[in-house]
Amino acid sequence: MVQLCCVKFFSFPTWKQRQGPWICDNNGHLCFSGRPAYEMNETHPDWAPSLHLGHTEVKATDNDRFQWRKRRRESVTAVSATATTAPHTPDVDEDAATAVLPQGSEQHGATHEATSPEEATQVPDVDQAPQQKYIVENEQCVSCKCMDGEMKSMRAEMNHLHEENMTLKKELSAARMDEGLFNENDKKARDEKVKYYTGLPYWTLLQPLHTVIIPCLTKASRKLSPFQMLLLALIRLRLHLPKQHLACLLQISHTTSKMFRETMGVLHFHLAPLVHWPARHCLQHTMPHQFVEPFGSHVAVILDCFEIGTEKPSNLKAQAQTYSHYKQKHTVKYLIGITPQGSITFISKGWGGHVSDKYLTEQCGILNKLLPGDLVLADCGFNIGDEVGLMCAEVKTPGFTRGCAQMDPKSVKDTRQIAHLRVHVERVTGLVHNKYNILQRTIPVSQLVPLEGEEFSFIDKIVTVCCALTNMSPSVVMKQVLAKPDSNGQSE
């Protein structure tokens, strides 16, 4: 019997992972680590060659990303092992406890022991996803709590720095004499500070004045803001502080006179209209009863003169013109007119102190403002009856004896009434002098003459601005009239 001898042929087993290991003699030029990675570690950057492949479309694998994934999976494995060895508690479910380990860990224990930690983490189990999600959420909660604490501390620090910044800004504004100087929560304290530095009674009067003059003072080359220039001028008028002291306060050079002159020119332009002659019906409608009883509603103005001391001029003629026999020194004289209500309605230009009251009244132009039927109250030195009569008006002056032994009873009564009412103009004049100390100082001769191309001298601008600022304040005459009790003992 013939026996057939058959040889069976079997093919080599196929390796599904790319036909087995890839062998290359020049691994250093194709791999990051210089040698190929383990075949089962697919996430390793050297699992497949990626360097010097002759093209640039495929980017090289990021080695840092691989290291990060590796560390994260190792941490997840460590946490899972810790959760497995922890004692069982009633609060923990059996499903949650078994979800920590893969289901096939008992059957394939030997296989897992033989492989490296990288291999053990290559095949994640489906049941491991909830545990990983819980761990990630737990880590996120911890990080959120840390961020919340950091945000609270940063917010507290920010509030502290904001308060400190506001405090330092106030101190800096006060030191630089800026608007922050008057940032007071108490309105009364703020108004008192405004009154001390500027002479104005309220902060609400200083703000509109600042708004009006801003267009005329805004210049990029100035070191001072428009408000600082305004405050510089008002402080100079009100307190007459030395120039060097103001320069130190405002941190500028000692040549503050140029800024002062410029600001005074702007103030004179804007405030001069406040010294105006009112209409007759306005005067009669608000005439105080102290004037109505003896003179009716015909009193138009109360006249008086005041003088400001000046330096002695070098010119002999100027010395004679400015010397005042009444003051016994060189002065400049002004004619001032106020209404019965106490507001300043007229201020003349400066004249030499030697000029008489009558001549000054005739030449200053106030007679042209009188209307027929007006009554003018004046002092004895105003012998202007004829000049006022030419305007169909009347002047009342206190009587004097004129060589007689005594006055008749009617003249005494009229003189007492006129003298009592003329006190108001002296009160207003004294208020202007006392409020603005610059009028109490000796004026340099250089300020008595107008500059070329200007109509008013610098001292005329100063006096006009002081009178206008006085008109912006409440009237001292009306204040006294309203405070005076009537015949029934009640104040009006």
TrEMBL record:
Domain Transposase Helix-turn-helix: residue ranges: 222-272
Reported cofactor(s): a divalent metal cation
GO molecular function: metal ion binding
Keyword Metal-binding appears in the UniProt entry: yes
Domain DDE Tnp4: residue ranges: 303-471
Chain spans, region Disordered: 72-126
Biased composition range(s): Low complexity: 76-86
Keyword field contains Coiled coil: yes
One Pfam family per UniProt: HTH_Tnp_4
Keyword annotations from UniProtKB, A to Z: Coiled coil, Metal-binding
Coiled-coil features, chain-numbered ranges: 151-178
Protein name: Zgc:113019
Organism: Amphiprion percula (Orange clownfish)
Lineage: Eukaryota, Metazoa, Chordata, Craniata, Vertebrata
